[in-house]
Design brief:
Length: 477
């Protein structure tokens, strides 16, 4: 009897525990992907994620075909599809790799119960994380709320397990024509209007792209990561986040590549990078233990936060479009729109502007990121937004409000990042680039800029709004 292999966000052949388990049975394998976005509600994939998913599925199907098999795509509901497949093929076993967001976790538990009641062997595996989110607890058996303590505990139990190598051949099942299977195109994951040109220029979704990026980063970027990681004007980070999110490369493979090239998780040049992988683990840990946090602040005092309602729609739109009149923020929001990704330093700055200077709820920013990021990930996005808004675990203290002008001057010192994404400001001298509203009229004129016409006036007074944000904080603290 064949074995059903249910792929979700683990679109890889390398280091795929469910695949290894299915192969070890020696039976023919039916690789399945089930399109059921409703089952992930209210966090079904946004537009940028759907773009990625389309190309990732296409790449994965090609990889399976090169090994003598193929990907069968179905429309949900997932349980019905799996039951029918098992019924039609006589499959006795189903394998998948675990997901950890609340909606799929609940669904998978329910599906497992049903399939087992039908008499099927049903097994899930750990593939997306280094540690199960429930595995690392503090000495009182409680979840960690402070990253440094969490990560110290992780590093203590970090084992250098060998990743599973990709199989040469995956025996296929030829017994039946799957009439319900559909073509990838029919899922309509790609946008109907052409906003994805910048995505194509930036990314190669799929396992080959993921492995190539990891190799390139370890060879050329890892040694300088500790200093270059904060510079959005440089290619200082790995840009593995969408590949990790869709499971095109396993965190264990990345770690193994680093450790086997001599990296040490506790010191040296590899340490800062491995620690960032640790933040990802922390995000999964928190989401597991506090499943309400994609929508609700972990710090409950923030339930009563006096968010702005006046001009909210207008300021949010200016923020989304990269038209706030604050160059470092606008550069980030435009990078996000064009490439589906934004540098981490700039994510913190734009999130701080939204939640503190504009006093708009962090949830509305998280939603915008959810729709526009190719790496949109419920655990990491929730962590990032709650951290910046000051209401999460181990969050930045509320009173630490990023000044986007100083951040720009410090982390984009030559203005290359702002000039790239806000070309209308390109001719402005460095001195005024991060704050064009301070430039004298003749300087603006020489640079060909009429503020409020070619580039917006700032939508908010940074100093005054900072004071207001601190006053709002005083009311709830
Ligand atoms: P690198 O610096 O090369 O780091 C390597 C990997 O470590 C990343 O790919 C990522 O998986 C993980 N990582 C790095 N930084 C963090 C972090 N702060 N938190 C959790 N994991 C991290 N990351 C997402 O993957 N998805 C999101 O939806 C997301 N939303 C964010 C929202 C906000 C407001 C903020 C401040 C951060 C968010 N992050 C998110 C975290 C971080 O910005 C990205 O992981 C990082 O920019 C991805 O680029 P990279 O792969 O080059 O990172």
């Amino acid at each position: 009897a064949p074995v059903i292999l249910w792929f979700r966000r683990d679109l890889r052949l390398d280091d795929n525990p469910a695949l290894s388990a299915a192969l070890s049975s020696g039976a023919p394998i039916i690789p399945v992907y089930i399109h059921a976005p409703d089952e992930e509600a209210p966090w079904q994939p946004g537009a940028a994620s759907r773009w990625w998913l389309h190309w990732s599925l296409a790449a994965f199907d090609a990889a399976l075909r090169a090994r003598g098999n193929r990907l069968w795509i179905f429309n949900g509901p997932s349980l019905t599809v799996l039951q029918q497949l098992a019924h039609e093929t006589g499959a006795q076993a189903i394998h998948w790799n675990r997901l950890y967001d609340p909606a799929t976790r609940e669904r998978d538990t329910r599906i497992k119960q049903h399939l087992r009641a039908d008499g099927l062997g049903c097994e899930s595996h750990k593939a997306q994380v280094l540690f199960e989110p429930w595995e690392i607890l503090n000495s009182s058996g409680q979840p960690y709320r402070v990253f440094s303590a969490f990560w110290r505990a992780c590093v203590r139990s970090l084992q250098i397990e060998s990743p599973h190598p990709p199989p040469e051949h995956i025996p296929s099942y030829t017994g039946i024509k799957f009439n319900a299977a559909c073509a990838l195109k029919s899922l309509a994951l790609l946008p109907s209007s052409n906003w994805d040109a910048g995505f194509h220029a930036t990314w190669e979704p799929g396992e080959t792209g993921a492995i190539a990026r990891a190799h390139a980063f370890i060879e050329h970027g890892l040694a300088d990561y500790g200093t270059a990681r904060d510079r959005p004007d440089q290619l200082g980070t790995s840009r593995l986040s969408p590949h990790l999110h869709f499971g095109e490369i396993s965190p264990r493979r990345v770690l193994h590549m680093i450790l086997s090239s001599g990296g040490d998780p506790t010191q040296g040049t590899a340490e800062p990078y491995i620690r960032e992988l640790g933040w990802r683990e922390f995000g999964y840990h928190l989401l597991h233990h506090f499943p309400q946090t994609p929508d609700a602040p972990l710090d409950e005092r923030f339930q009563a936060f006096p968010w702005a309602t006046e001009r909210a729609e207008m300021t949010r739109t200016a923020w989304q479009r990269g038209q706030t009149g604050i160059p470092f923020v606008d550069a980030g929001m435009r990078e996000l729109w064009h490439t589906g990704w934004m540098h981490n330093r700039v994510r913190m700055v734009v999130a701080s502007l939204l939640t503190k200077n504009l006093l708009l709820p962090w949830q509305s920013g998280a939603r915008w990121f959810w729709d526009t990021l190719v790496d949109a990930d419920l655990a990491n996005n929730t962590l990032g937004w709650q951290w910046t808004a000051g209401c999460g675990a181990d969050a930045a203290p509320y009173f630490r409000i990023f000044n986007p002008v100083l951040q720009g001057q410090r982390f984009d010192p030559d203005g290359a990042y702002v000039r790239h994404w806000c070309p209308e400001l390109a001719r402005l001298p460095d001195k005024y680039l991060q704050q064009p509203w301070t430039a004298p009229q003749n300087v603006l004129a020489a640079a060909g800029i009429r503020l409020g016409h070619d580039y917006p006036q700032p939508i908010v007074d940074l100093a005054q709004s900072r004071t207001q944000a601190l006053a709002a904080w005083e009311r709830i603290k």
